[in-house]
Amino acid sequence: MPIEGGNFRADQVSLLAGTIHQRCTDPRLGEWLEVLADSSLADDPHSDPGATISRLHRDYKRACRLTTELVEAMSRATVIGQQRWEVARHDQNFSHFKPALAEIFRLKREIASRLAEPDQSRYDALLDEYEPNAKASEIRQVFNDLRPHLVQLSQQILDARHPPNERILQRKAAKESQRKLSELAAQRIGFDFQRGRLDQTTHPFCTTLGPSDCRILTRYQEKWLPAGLFGTLHEAGHGLYEQGLRQDWYGLPPGSYASLGIHESQSRLWENLVGRSYPFWQHFWPETRSILGKTVQDLSLYEFWRSINTSRPSLIRVEADEVTYNLHIIIRFDLEQALLENELSVDDLPDAWADRYESDLQIRPPSVREGVLQDVHWSAGLIGYFPTYTLGNLIASQLLTAARDQVGDLDAQWRVGEFSPLLDWLRAQIHRHGQCYSADELIHKATGKPLSSAPLVQHLRTKYAEVYRL
Ligand SMILES: [Zn+2]
């Protein structure tokens, strides 16, 4: 779209958002939901009808707290925001984006104030959209437990005397070979190509167009193997969750994902905990060698496995490794809360961002493109969204630890290419419940414990001790 076309698009999008809001807050809908909420159908909140009623009622009440004018204004601000973000990012000039971002935060403050329940902070009210019932204070507690371990481990890694050879990953590999390999990997972990597709794009994602139409998209870089392969495993993990939701409840709470944290736990589990594990590669190495040919011919499996688990502080979140990734998220979590509570002004954001990278990751972005302008989220009004990425990592480790107790010797299964016992367990514990249980309840039911940072810390310490010979 030409840059001048944006305002008209913003008009159209905000009109649609307003119309949808009016339909969703129709008083008749409220009356029907009241009747249903008082009926015996709602007695068991974990039953299909009970969960449907309670979730739709909750969404209805939330929508009614906002005016159509506010919804339209927010929608317009985010369309404009994304356009300004793109220009500012291209020009590496934050001032082109600043007024739009200030407007987004102003509107979000108003929305949050209207949505907040008596026991919720404004941030909680926004978080609720992505992670129902989560509390910023509880997330902060888990992040505070996690952070010192990450800082310490990443320092040990920097000091390690026998790091893996990360240049292996920059070897040239034809895109077509990478596509073959990625498709095979997605198939192997159970992605159903009769009910989904794998295609190429600029920014990888997974989207569902219908109950049997899940699209995963990835990108291949000729001189950076992990982008395509692990990008595909990540999106295929999201896809496995979508394909595991019950089709007969498609579009309704029992057939919808529980929360973004749970969704991300599925992608991270397959990408990192399975896809970067040694047993996975014991199975997948011969096929990789035959597909990638010369690129990896001189390497041992062990050398290759170490290289795909390289860790190094970096500026760009989406390219970060398992150890440093969560430090990126904690920075955004802190900054967006400060912005929302007016403790930090948008004017000071680029410096605040760079200062945090310097203190937390010992690396200062040379430009706003590698700094505050790298992620699209805030320009799209996604505030309260970032913590769900780290929640995903934490949940993934906790789930896998429980699966190891309940499913048997997963490593032995992966070594011979058997991934269905783990997938079946995830289907039974997580996928088939949709929104019949909250994220917290699902974690508790599957693992017997509340969310904790311990399994992720344990996983990272064990794995990186071996990769870096610490
Ligand atoms: Zn994801």
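^ zinc ion complex. The first strand starts at residue 196 and ends at 200. Residues 234, 238, 264, 267 surround zinc ion (CB under 6 Å).
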